[in-house]
């Protein structure tokens, strides 16, 4: 089973919103085979708590405006600003502080899953923006 096109479109909208606010190292995975409760997982980073919160808010705004008033089922971590998890059911968005992303190394959990091309052009091809993911993977070798 692979992620539905609608879920891929949601992830791309979220990634574009994050990219506009200078989120770093965006990566998305098709986790539908592994989890069964969601289709896709997006992970993006920021280097301070204020930016983490701003990115999360921009993602929520864009998904609401561009996808039939879609609202999250839940969100966690807003008060701390270290790791904001936004659950939309079909997708889960993780907006993480750089330090938290390195510490939790979510990419390690999903590295066997197929990556979703994000088609971001503002910061270049998404394959060149995975320095955190690549660093995390190489640290295990």
From TrEMBL:
<keyword id="KW-0963">Cytoplasm</keyword>
<comment type="similarity">
    <text>Belongs to the Iojap/RsfS family.</text>
</comment>
<protein>
    <recommendedName>
        <fullName>Ribosomal silencing factor RsfS</fullName>
    </recommendedName>
</protein>
<dbReference type="GO" id="GO:0005737">
    <property type="term" value="C:cytoplasm"/>
</dbReference>
<keyword id="KW-0810">Translation regulation</keyword>
<comment type="subunit">
    <text>Interacts with ribosomal protein uL14 (rplN).</text>
</comment>
<dbReference type="GO" id="GO:0042256">
    <property type="term" value="P:cytosolic ribosome assembly"/>
</dbReference>
<dbReference type="Pfam" id="PF02410">
    <property type="entry name" value="RsfS"/>
</dbReference>
<dbReference type="GO" id="GO:0090071">
    <property type="term" value="P:negative regulation of ribosome biogenesis"/>
</dbReference>
<dbReference type="GO" id="GO:0017148">
    <property type="term" value="P:negative regulation of translation"/>
</dbReference>
<keyword id="KW-0678">Repressor</keyword>
<comment type="function">
    <text>Functions as a ribosomal silencing factor. Interacts with ribosomal protein uL14 (rplN), blocking formation of intersubunit bridge B8. Prevents association of the 30S and 50S ribosomal subunits and the formation of functional ribosomes, thus repressing translation.</text>
</comment>
<dbReference type="InterPro" id="IPR004394">
    <property type="entry name" value="Iojap/RsfS/C7orf30"/>
</dbReference>
<dbReference type="InterPro" id="IPR043519">
    <property type="entry name" value="NT_sf"/>
</dbReference>
<dbReference type="GO" id="GO:0043023">
    <property type="term" value="F:ribosomal large subunit binding"/>
</dbReference>
